[in-house]
Fold these 4 entries.
Entry 1:
Amino acid sequence: MIKAEPGHFARFEPTPPVIKYTDSPIAAWADDGHPMVVRATGLVRADSISGYMGINSDPDPNPTPYAFLPGDGWAVQYDDGAVPLVAWAMCTYGGLDATFAVPMVAKEEASYPSGSISTLGAPASAAESVTVVPISEARGLRAP
C-alpha cells in the first residue's frame, strides 16, 4: 500500500435526496493501483462503494479559509495608494495539507448618507498590482 499525496479524490454519484456529487479524499493506493478511501470499517477500495465514478483531482479550486489572524502592522500597497490590512485568512485548497495566508482588506460595497457597507475580501484581481508591506512603509495610506 502506498500513501496518497494530497489532492486526489474518489468521486461518487449523488444518491437521492442529495443532488450533488461527493468526493472522498484518497488516503492510499492499493498495491494493484486502486484508490483507497476511509470508511467506518477502515480503508476500502473506492470502486467497491456504490456510485463510484472515478478519480478527481482537487474538487474545490477556491481557497477555503479556516482561521483569521489580525492584520495589525501591515498594509496592502496598490499602484495608487495603500489600505490597512484587516486580517490574514489562513486557507487550504480542498483536502490538501498545505496552508497559506491570503491578505484581507475592507472593501466598500455601498455608500449611503448614514454610512457605508464594507465586506472583507482579497485585495487584488488578476489585473491589479499589489504588495503587502509593513504599514510604516506604505505610501499614500488611506482609510479602508
Note: The longest strand covers residues 100-112.
Entry 2:
Amino acid sequence: MESNDVQNDDQETTVVEEATESPTDSGFNSNESESPSSSRCSSFSEAGSAISDDFATITDDLDNLNLTDDDLESALKDDIDLVIIKDDDEKNSVTFGKTMTVTDVISRSVGEDLNADDYDLMIDGRVLPRTITLRDAGVTGGTKVRLVEREMQIFIRRVDGRTTTIQIRPSNTIMAIKEQFFHTDQVPVHQQRLLFQSNELENTRTVVSYNIRVGSTLEMVYRLRGGCLTGKF
C-alpha cells in the first residue's frame, strides 16, 4: 500500500511541475507571436517621427527667409499690386492676377494706342521673358517693375542714294528724328522733309502712328525756298 501512495505522489508532483513550466522553458517566444496591429502602430510611429523632423526643417528654412506678414499675405492672394515705372519715371500702382503673363502686363500698361511688342518689362535691370506668368517670375505685391520702350533701327535715304542708319523709339516724334538726322548728317532740320510710303510725315506725330517698324526706310528730300522739294520717289 505504501509503495502505491508514493507512486501517486510522484505523479502529482510531475503534473504540477509541467503545469507551472515557464513559457521560456517551453520554447515560447513572445516576439514570434507579435500581432499585426502592433507592427502597424510601430510603422505609424516611425512615419510620424519622420514627418515631424521634416516639418521642423521646413520651419527653420522659412525662418531663415525672414518673411514678413505682408510677404505671406501676398503669397496667398490671387491678385498682386505692382508699381509700374515708365521711361519718364511716371509711377502707377496697378492690380494684376498672378496667372497673367508678362505680355498681358505690358499690354495693359501701354494702352491701346501703343504696340506691346515695342516694350519690355524689367525688374532690377533684368528683362522678364514675355511668356511666363507673374507667379513663375516670382513677382510679389509691391514689386517695382520698369516698362522700357525698345529701341529700333531704321534707315534714312537721301536723294543721291546715300543711306544713314539711326536708332529710334516708337514714341519718338518725326521732329525728334529730324534732329537726330541733323546731328549725324548735318542737314538742317528746316531743310528736311521725310517721306514714308510716299507720304510726307508731320513733325508732331509719332513713329508708331505711321506704323514705322524695325528696318523701315524713310526718304529724305530737301526743302528749297518756296517750299519745293527736290527729288522724286
Note: The longest helix spans residues 36-65.
Entry 3:
Amino acid sequence: MIESTIRHTGVEREEDNKKIFELKSTRFEVGIGDPTTGEYPHFPVPMNKGEERMIDNLSFTVEEVSPKTRTVKIGISQVGQGRNGLCLEQVRKEGDVLLIGSVAEIVLRKFRLDGRPVFRFSVAKDIRVHSRDRMGYRQAS
C-alpha cells in the first residue's frame, strides 16, 4: 500500500504538514505553455541547502543536496492561505517533474561547479515566487 502511494504521488515521505520529494537532475524541460507568451514564464532558480522559496503559500525548501548522485531532497509545506488557494494535496511528482496542481512545474536542471543545485520553474504569471522573508512570512522566534 505504501509503495503504491509513493509511485502514484512521488512522495518519498510525509511529515506533519510537509511532503519530501527526491528530484534527479534532468534535461527534461518544464512544459506549461509556451515561454514566449508570458503566461507561464520559465526561469532558473539556483538554491543552497536549507534555502527556501515561497510559491504563493507553499514553502519549497532544499533539504539535502547530493551532487555525486545528482539528486536533491525537497521539502514542501503549506504556510497559511495564499491568494491562489494552493494546498499541499496539489503537490505531486511525475517522473522527474514536481507538479503543483496545474499552475507550476519544477525540475532539477543541473548542479553548478560549487555544488549548488539549479532548478527550472514554470509557474503561472499570477503565482508569486519569492523568498519567505520578502513577503512577511517570517515566523516569530
Note: The first helix runs from residue 2 to 9.
Entry 4:
Amino acid sequence: MRWLFLLLLVLNVFYYIWHQQEAPLRAKDVTPLSLYRGAQ
C-alpha cells in the first residue's frame, strides 16, 4: 500500500508542475486573441 501511496503522490506532483507550466502558455495564447478582437 505504501508504494501505491507514493505513486499517487508523485503523479500529483507531476500533474501540478505540468499545469503550472501550461497556465502561462494558455494566458499568452488567449491575450493576443482578445487584443486582436479589440483592434477590429
Note: The CA atoms of residues 7 and 13 lie 10 Å apart.
